[in-house]
Amino acid sequence: MSPGSAPPHRLRAFVVRTLLLFGFWLLLLEPESLALAVMAVDWAVGALAALAAAALSLRLLPPARRVPRLWPLLRFLVRFPAQSLLAGLDVARRALDPRLPVSPTLLQHRTALPPGTSRTLFGALSSQIPGTLAVDLDDPERLLYHCLYRPDAAGRGLAADEALFRELLGQGRARGGEPPA
C-alpha cells in the first residue's frame, strides 16, 4: 500500500507518532549541539529515526479507529493528578505517623473493560495512584489490586476512574466499575 492510499486514520496516526518521536529525540539532544552543522546532522538522524520508529509502531500496534473524546480526556487529566496528590499525601501521612492504620489487602475490582490494551492501560494508570497497585489483569471480569488501606474507598475511586476512562474511550458506562465483591 503506498503512502497516498493509506486510510486517513492510519496516516494521521503515522504523522502524530512521527512528531511525538521526533519531539522526544529533540529532548535528548545536548545543549552544546546547537552548532549549525551538528544540529543539521542531529535533526536529520532524528527525523529518519522517528520515521522508521513510527512506521514500525504502526505494524506492531495498529492505530484504533476511535480517538479519545475531548471532554472526558480533560476531566481525566484534571482528576488524575489531583487524586494522585491527595493519595500521595495520605500514604506519606500513614508512613510517618504510626498511629494511622495501614492494613494491606487485596481488592477485587469488577470491570467491564475488555481484555487487552484498554484494560492494561487502565491498570497501569490506576497503579500510579499511591496506595493502589494492579497485580492481576487476566481475570475476564475483575482486576486485582493491592491496597494499603480502606479497600472500600479504593474501590469507589477505581469505579469512578474506570467510568471516566470508559467514557474517554467511547465505551459508555456499562456495568464497569461496580463496587468490589
From the structure above, extract its key features:
single chain; globular; disordered C terminus; mainly alpha
Please characterize this protein's 3D structure.
With 181 residues, this protein is mostly helical. Helix 1 (8-28) packs across helix 2 and helix 3 runs antiparallel to helix 5 (151-169). The protein contains 5 helices and 3 strands; from the N terminus they run H-H-H-E-H-E-E-H. It has helices at residues 8-28, 36-60, 70-96, 117-126, 151-169; strands at residues 105-110, 132-136, 142-147. 56% of the residues lie in helices and 9% in strands. The protein is globular and about 60 Å long. The model is unreliable at 174-181 (pLDDT under 50).
Helix and strand arrangement:
Elements: H1 8-28, H2 36-60, H3 70-96, E1 105-110, H4 117-126, E2 132-136, E3 142-147, H5 151-169
Antiparallel strand pairs: 1-3, 2-3
Helical coverage, percent range: 55-70%
Q: What's the alpha carbon Rg, rounded to whole Å?
A: 21 Å
Largest sheet: 3 strands, antiparallel
SS field, number of helical segments: 5
Order of SSEs: HHHEHEEH
- Give the CA-based shape: globular
Task: Describe the structure in brief.
The protein has 181 residues and is mainly alpha-helical. It contains 5 helices and 3 strands, in the order αααβαββα. A 3-stranded antiparallel beta sheet has the order 1-3-2, covered by helices on one side.
